[in-house]
Amino acid sequence: METLVGMEDVPATLDFYIYWVPQRGYIASQTMSWIGVPRDATSLWKPDRIEFGIAGSETDEAGFIRFDSLQGVSLYSVVRPASVRSLRPTFDLSWVKIEDASVIAQLWHRPARRVSYIGRGGRSLGEADILLPLPGEAQTLFTRMRAALERKLADPAAHCRAIPDPTPEELMEQAI
Q1: How far apart are CA 143 and CA 148, in angstroms?
Q2: CB burial class (10 A; 0-12, 13-18, 19+) of residue 139?
Q3: CA 20 to 30 Å from 66, out of 55, 90, 101, 169?
Q4: The dihedral formed by the CA atoms of 127, 113, 53 and 65, expressed in degrees to the nearest 10
């Protein structure tokens, strides 16, 4: 969770991220992100973005993702085009990002437990169990983290990291 302090002309918001990693020291392989949450909010709504690293030997940027979950005794699936990029050669992963609000709403209210990445020819390119928390668990984490953030905001000088304004050279470099 992060927020800006000392910016009175900017609305008080925070960003909240949940990362799942296979073990300490590894890159996040699944994430959920909430961006621009009002700082006084006490309840989470659906995330703004959900991302997965899916192991496999190839990436098809025109592929599809399928989310599967059991609803009662039947299988419930959502299939959508993938927004994906390869992380090769550093990692043997395809990084799949979901920002479509309607898909995220379906996943948030009817949580899937498995994601499959399918090439445009219908061939499976990889799959993973979804290990991100369910909505109630995410709410518990948010409540706990928000309380910790408020304690730190009571004395920002002791708990916050100052980020210096960029130099004119850095601004020029960013513009290029």
Answers
A1: 9
A2: middle
A3: 90
A4: 60
